[in-house]
């Protein structure tokens, strides 16, 4: 059933957006997209603005990730769009259903040199599922609805539309198509059965669950499969927290032992990329479970690779009725390794050193963070420790840049997280290098009354580059930052608050003040520049 809508191009677009559950707009002001602002203002539709377009796209991506629905960023023509491309690319690698609406110079003068005239599509097409210029107001509802359906169809991802001035400012009327439900992708039952048999018969199986498990609402099905087949589970990305840390099959710290000795490695909802040794687990057979056939690995030959709705596949694993090996000894062996690693980590997280070791920062954060806190990682060296020391207890509570590794997500993700969860703790973990990308958008958070806590690990260097370069060449260049820079004073100048912490004993009280502040608050922790994360190479 369709509905007839009329109005200028902005109103037509907003009608389609609301039909698909979009509930807010992130933007940086630009004249090419005024009708979209007018439609939002007239309808009382929430509008949040930022100081750099990449933050608008990152905010939209945070909403898409956390709420599993479309996020919206509106960017003006030319540099507005190009400034947002890093955000679009991150959303592409993260399979986030983000819609970016761009302004565009007038088509009737195309080629005459209008302000910010450029064809965006060749730039954004490689990092979107769909990119289109909509030339008439009447066509806007159709285009928006089609783009959002594409964004939500597995494998999910960002889409882009731009509107020439005469299209978005013109008045039109059109049918508003009813939202198209996304049908589950039915997996090949024979491939599912093949995978289930491999897992059940394995002596030492391991599951690694990634972001698509959360995005595909397959957390419950993952737990059912793991429990039915008695397989230990490790997680990455937004898969973290899919099994709570106290679950008998949840593991985080015994990964080296698990992947070194497993005979079957089941990777669910995450690519076989550099984070997972490119799918090379020695002699272990690999089962790669993906949400769409396009996501099957092309560089390795898995023993089985079911493709389709992850809930259907994992539920089928749980219902497998064939022979099953006993995994009790394997699970006990991993638990022994896990407990030993936990003991080592506990000592490191309690270290009372001067300067402060990053592990101690995370030890204090574990005490300060509520179970449902949203934790955001924006950095390299400092944030790498979060994967080791923080263990989310609930799914959908961890945001990081993902495999594209783009710095600068922090303030945009924080805005999207605060809008998504007004009553939760929002904590951004930021390296001092990453702080240079987006810290100015603290002003956006202050102005729009969006309090978050920002913890900066300040070691005065690019930690993932300085030490490897020195090891390779005997020297380093372009790897130093200003030591002990007062990032807290920057936040204070922008209307927030903060403090610098140089002693480990002062960390806990500082975090307490930060979470009680009710404004953006930055805890600037002076950490040891010699204490680089062991995996201090991003060259893989």
Automatic annotation (TrEMBL):
It holds the Pfam family TPP_enzyme_C. It is an enzyme of class 2 (transferase). InterPro entries: DHS-like_NAD/FAD-binding_dom (IPR029035), THDP-binding (IPR029061), Thiamin_PyroP_enz_cen_dom (IPR012000), Thiamin_PyroP_enz_TPP-bd_dom (IPR012001), TPP_enz (IPR045229), TPP_enzyme_TPP-bd (IPR011766). CDD domains: TPP_BZL_OCoD_HPCL (cd02004), TPP_PYR_POX_like (cd07035). Residues 9-121 form the Thiamine pyrophosphate enzyme N-terminal TPP-binding domain. Keywords: Thiamine pyrophosphate, Transferase. Residues 378-525 form the Thiamine pyrophosphate enzyme TPP-binding domain. Its cofactor is thiamine diphosphate. Its EC number is 2.2.1.6. It comes from the Bacteria. Residues 192-316 form the Thiamine pyrophosphate enzyme central domain. GO terms for molecular function: acetolactate synthase activity. PANTHER family: 2-HYDROXYACYL-COA LYASE 2, THIAMINE PYROPHOSPHATE ENZYMES. NCBIfam families: PRK05858.1 (NF004516). Belongs to the TPP enzyme family. This is Acetolactate synthase.
């Amino acid at each position: 059933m369709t509905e007839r809508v009329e109005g200028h191009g902005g109103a037509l677009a907003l009608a389609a957006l609301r039909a698909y559950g979009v509930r807010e707009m992130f933007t940086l002001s630009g004249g090419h997209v005024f009708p979209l602002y007018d439609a939002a203002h007239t309808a009382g539709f929430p509008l949040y603005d930022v100081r750099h377009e990449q933050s608008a796209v990152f905010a939209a991506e945070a909403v898409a990730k956390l709420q599993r629905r479309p996020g919206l960023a509106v960017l003006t023509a030319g540099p507005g769009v190009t400034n947002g491309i890093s955000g679009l690319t991150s959303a592409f690698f993260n399979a986030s259903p983000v819609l970016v609406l761009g302004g565009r110079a007038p088509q009737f003068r195309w080629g005459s040199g209008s302000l910010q005239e450029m064809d965006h599509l060749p730039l954004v097409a490689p990092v979107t599922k769909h990119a289109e210029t909509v030339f008439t107001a009447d066509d806007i509802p159709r285009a928006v609805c089609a783009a959002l359906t594409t964004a939500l169809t597995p494998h999910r991802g960002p889409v882009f539309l731009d509107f020439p001035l005469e299209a978005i400012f013109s008045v039109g009327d059109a049918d508003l198509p009813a939202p198209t439900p996304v049908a589950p992708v039915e997996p090949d039952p024979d491939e599912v059965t093949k995978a289930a048999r491999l897992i059940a018969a394995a002596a030492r199986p391991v599951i690694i669950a990634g972001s698509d498990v959360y995005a595909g609402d397959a957390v419950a099905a993952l737990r059912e499969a793991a429990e039915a087949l008695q397989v230990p589970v490790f997680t990455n990305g937004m898969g973290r927290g899919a099994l709570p840390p106290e679950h008998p099959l949840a593991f985080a710290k015994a990964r080296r032992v698990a992947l070194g000795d497993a005979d079957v490695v089941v990777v669910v909802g995450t690519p076989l990329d550099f984070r997972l040794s490119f799918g090379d687990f020695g002699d272990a057979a690999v089962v790669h479970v993906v949400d769409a056939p396009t996501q099957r690995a092309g560089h390795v030959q898995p023993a089985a690779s079911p493709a389709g709705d992850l809930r259907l596949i994992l539920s089928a694993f749980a219902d497998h009725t064939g022979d099953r090996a006993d995994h009790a000894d394997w699970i006990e062996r991993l638990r022994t390794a896990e407990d030993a690693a936990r003991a080592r980590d506990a000592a490191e997280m309690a270290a009372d050193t001067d300067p402060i070791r990053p592990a101690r920062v995370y030890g204090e954060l574990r005490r300060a963070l509520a179970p449902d806190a949203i934790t955001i990682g924006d950095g390299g060296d400092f944030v790498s420790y979060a994967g080791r020391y923080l263990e989310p207890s609930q799914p959908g509570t961890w945001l990081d840049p993902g495999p594209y590794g783009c710095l600068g997500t922090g303030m945009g993700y924080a805005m999207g997280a605060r809008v998504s969860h007004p009553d939760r703790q929002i904590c951004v973990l930021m390296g001092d290098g990453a702080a240079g990308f987006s810290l100015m958008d603290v002003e956006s958070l202050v102005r729009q009354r969006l309090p978050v806590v920002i913890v900066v690990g300040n070691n005065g260097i690019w930690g993932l580059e300085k030490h490897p370069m020195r090891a390779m060449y005997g020297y380093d260049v372009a790897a130093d930052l200003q030591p002990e820079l007062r990032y807290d004073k920057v936040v204070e100048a922008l209307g927030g608050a903060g403090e610098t912490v140089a002693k480990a004993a002062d960390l806990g009280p500082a975090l307490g003040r930060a979470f009680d502040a009710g404004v953006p608050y930055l805890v600037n922790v002076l950490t040891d520049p010699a204490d680089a994360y062991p995996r201090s190479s991003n060259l893989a």
